[in-house]
Amino acid sequence: MAQQQGMDSALFERRLRPVYDNLEVGNNRKALQESEKLLRKHPTLLCARALKGLSLLRLGRYDESHGCLQTVAEEKPTDDSTLQVLSFCYREMEQLDKIVELYQHAVKQNPGNEELLAHLFISHVRVEDYKAQQAVALQLYKAQPKNAYYFWSVISVVFQGIRGPESALPEKRKIYLGLAQRMVDKHIKEGKLETEQEAFLYLHILKLQNKYQEAWEFLTGELCAKLYPGAPVSMKFELLKELGNWRELNELLQQLLDADRDRWDFYKEYIQSSFELLKLSPQTEENGEKDSLARCQEFLQGIIDSSERKKRGPYLARLELHQRMRADQLPAEKLIGDFDEMVIEYFRLFGDKSCCTHDIALFLPSISMKQRQALASKLLLESGVTSTSLPKNKEQLQKHLCALQISRMCGSHMELPVDHLLAFYTNLKLHYEHGRSTFGKKLLATEMGPSDAYALLAANVMYDLSRRENKSDHLFEALCLLQYVLRNSTSNFHVKLLSLKIYHLFGCQVGAQEMYEYLDIKQIQLDSMGYVHCQLLPLGGRFSGTRNVYDATLKFFTNSYKERLEYIALTYRFCTFSKMEEFMNFKERLTNSLQYVACSVEAQICDLVSCYGNIQQNLTAYAAMSIEPAEDRIAWHELSDNRDLEAVIRWDPLHEVNAAEERKESFDQEVEVLQVRSLMLRLFASFVDLYHGPSSKESPAGEEAATLELLRESWTGLFQRLRLMNYKPMAQKFLVNLLPTRLHLLLDLPYERFFDDLAQLVLDLQSGSGKLAEQCKRVGDNVITVMELCVQTINESNEWNGMDGLWKRRGQQQKVAASLEMLSLYAFLLSVLNDKLQVSSKAKTKKRPVDNKVDGPQPISEKERSQMLQELMRQLKHKLEACDAAIRTWKAPVLPRDLSSFMSDMSLKPEVEATLIGDVSATFKDSHELMVTELRNLLKDKIRMVAK
Amino acid sequence: MTTLRPFTCDDLFKFNNVNFDPLTETYGLSFYTQYLAKWPEYFQLAESPSGHIMGYIMGKVEGHLDNWHGHVTALTVSPDYRRLGLAALLMSFLEDISEKKRAYFVDLFVRKSNQVAINMYTNLGYIIYRTILEYYSGDQDEDAYDMRKALSRDVNKKSVIPYTQPITMRELRRQMRHDH
């Protein structure tokens, strides 16, 4: 075989080309035809058979593909192209151990073949089998004494010590790391160390063993200087700290800072080393010498005095020194001066930079609330803009903004009465407009407006007001203002993010979607930023309309899931030892992203809820989802929070914001929501499987019922636990705070009982239990409850519309969506049950000899069961119609009417104002109408589903 | 006031305040991972004292013989941290690494219309080496300037004698293939 191929490989390659080409452009059917054509001429051509397997795989014909690939693999191919195709297939199917086997066979037949060995090595990398990696790397090195291979084996030893199964045992860890070090030592002695990554690895091994002195000597030695001239200087800091050599560190940092006066990392270390030196010789002014902090202060002052161009570095460092001294109860003021004065000086120098707010905010937590607010007032005064004057130039405008942002951070807005806040808002609006028309005229499309931040601040203030009054009008006005800003500076993403938030808060999915698309969130941002939109869509009011957003997100994840191991392989190929662990951890984070898992589950639920075909089509679609009820595929303890919560800018009072806690709380709740949703999905799938289970499997009878029972127990157990946990809804103190999770919605609505009772119904229906009629009644009652919930919510929404159409809108839409979700799933289930019962009652009516020997209650006849089912379907149809009637009456949200004064302070032309408010209003109206249309279509499908 | 440190995979989750900027492209993962795996020291990040990402630079080193050079693939600074000399800091870092790697010059491509960037690079000592026709594709194709700065190894500054004629994408690709 191999010889046949070797004889004319060029010819075969030419003949295989069309198959490859078709696969590449995704024309899988054609690829299959081409491969079959080729196989008719050359039935034994392995690569063509492998490609046929790949084409089948791509076409979703898994069984045939599997058989095809299996027979190729059994022939133990050794040619590169066949192996490549096979390993590609196995990678797609996540059968990574098969790739290992494949290359093991190939290597056995071609011992010492470098290329095959390298592939074998990478196949071990994919399954993280470090021990096997080590062995293969050594074989490689024997075959080809390249440094890369030698160090592949070294790093494989290191990983056995720090990541492998034995890494938990300290003595094993020690042995492995010791071995790795000796391997490199030997190489060094032989003068064979060649690259900077090899030098890095050696340093890393030494550090892992706490051999800091040796590491220091190597790092500062000749060899390292030659091989690794770009070694980051932070390595030196790290080692000097470990060695407790604070004096040398202190001196080194002074030198570095002299040359590079704006490096925060250097200052931070420098200040720390000064404090450590103080601990070593605490007596001040001993021998007339100043203590280390005084020297530190002098050094910083020296930098300030001698710098021509003012840099933030030394000033911030001085504030940091001040802060740390106060934390240690040392006389900061005496040594450095008055804190407020220093902050004001900083503000004077750098207040015109937009980062000044972040900078000053760093030091606010170290002073009392009273001092904070006093300081904020001083800064406002310092900005030179008063309530009756306007900024004279861009710099002054930025200073004013900074002072306003700081004063919000200090809590100054919190205690203002409503009318003050309103006046403040008007003032901000005015400043925005003034800044825009005076300094923002020649803006590039890619720039943010100089005064945009006034409007952002204004939106936050208006949220505070809305929340205080539990009314939407102020926030709605803020939304209009933001939309106005967005017309002027189209690239301001802060404005888009806040608008997106407000649209969601008001349940306006069309507006939210518009902002989301405007943000152009893509690639990894779909993971880190998905929380602003994708995560808020489920149960938001629409089903089919949200599917596209899930799809785009899932596409990113499935692609990167496939590629994730190849990234790691890449670090081996380039011998980038410094990045390997980082890449492995990254892979874990991406694979276990909560956003990924949650989005997959929601997409599946969404598909089940909105399926609209005939029963056969629906069951096929269901089967293709391959939900395994018995199997919990989620690695609950590994779930990763990849949200970039800091991307949304905020200046909320520091004492009221605990970002870390908010992150944790919301994440915990989201995980619980996922628990409910994924269990609901599995439980529901177990209902379907009981009747349409994969009968081809030789699973023992009753296994499906057992799974159902088990899941049902978990279901009620989960709700019991969640109620005991007593989670609090996320506090929505500020606009930027995350919206509440769906946890309380799921707990408050009758989800638990609804699906619990369905479980019993499904079981009783199968066994023909005498309690079936009773259970039907119970389920019927639940349906009434859910229908009533839907109808009442809509009535309530219509009533509320008279007072405030937006404030409670999101919650109302959620309730309606949840009701319809339950009823839709139930409709699908009934259609499945009905299908099965009709078939089986027809089949069994004939052969039923009256055989009444068995005592005890008789199962209810199939016919009776079928009748009961028909009755349930009839009832559901009726209730769905009631929901539909209610939805038909659902009124679009009435928007706050009195906006006439809204823009009166602005130099806006009336037509601009009219179109702006008109556009925002239209967005709300469209959103409502679209939702109603979608929900009604959904109901129409479900009514049809149960009408037969 | 900046902390300079290597860009890590985890930063990909946190760089949104920089990448939402309309001039900053968010690439597919494989693009970032390739740079991180191949030229880890050429991918550096500037972090503010408050822990925000201020900006980053992404580059590589490649080429044969006297064409061995550093290349700036992407340089971006968050809107909140502009006018602080951050781009210059990141550029000087990349030049420094290229010096240590004994490169002859550093080069970069910039949109012909991006006058702000061109001025900045000129101030940093870069010259317009040549024009590349229709380098940026989009609704409207746009030419790029290939800008260069010689490093100390190029004693006679041979690498920065400008072309007089613009070159096409095809020529550029041919040269690059030749180079690898």
From TrEMBL, chain A:
Belongs to the MDM20/NAA25 family. It comes from the Eukaryota. One of its GO terms (cellular component) is lysosome. InterPro entries: NAA25_NatB_aux_su (IPR019183), TPR-like_helical_dom_sf (IPR011990). Residues 843-863 are annotated as: Disordered. Keywords: TPR repeat. It comes from Drosophila suzukii (Spotted-wing drosophila fruit fly). Pfam families: NatB_MDM20. GO terms for biological process: innate immune response. This is N-terminal acetyltransferase B complex subunit MDM20 homolog.
UniProtKB/TrEMBL annotation, chain B:
It catalyses: N-terminal L-methionyl-L-glutaminyl-[protein] + acetyl-CoA = N-terminal N(alpha)-acetyl-L-methionyl-L-glutaminyl-[protein] + CoA + H(+); N-terminal L-methionyl-L-aspartyl-[protein] + acetyl-CoA = N-terminal N(alpha)-acetyl-L-methionyl-L-aspartyl-[protein] + CoA + H(+); N-terminal L-methionyl-L-asparaginyl-[protein] + acetyl-CoA = N-terminal N(alpha)-acetyl-L-methionyl-L-asparaginyl-[protein] + CoA + H(+); N-terminal L-methionyl-L-glutamyl-[protein] + acetyl-CoA = N-terminal N(alpha)-acetyl-L-methionyl-L-glutamyl-[protein] + CoA + H(+). It is found in: Cytoplasm; Nucleus. Residues 2-152 form the N-acetyltransferase domain. Coiled coil: none annotated. One of its GO terms (molecular function) is protein N-terminal-methionine acetyltransferase activity. Catalytic subunit of the NatB complex which catalyzes acetylation of the N-terminal methionine residues of peptides beginning with Met-Asp, Met-Glu, Met-Asn and Met-Gln. Proteins with cell cycle functions are overrepresented in the pool of NatB substrates. Required for maintaining the structure and function of actomyosin fibers and for proper cellular migration. Component of the N-terminal acetyltransferase B (NatB) complex which is composed of NAA20 and NAA25. Belongs to the acetyltransferase family. ARD1 subfamily. This is N-alpha-acetyltransferase 20. It comes from Drosophila suzukii.
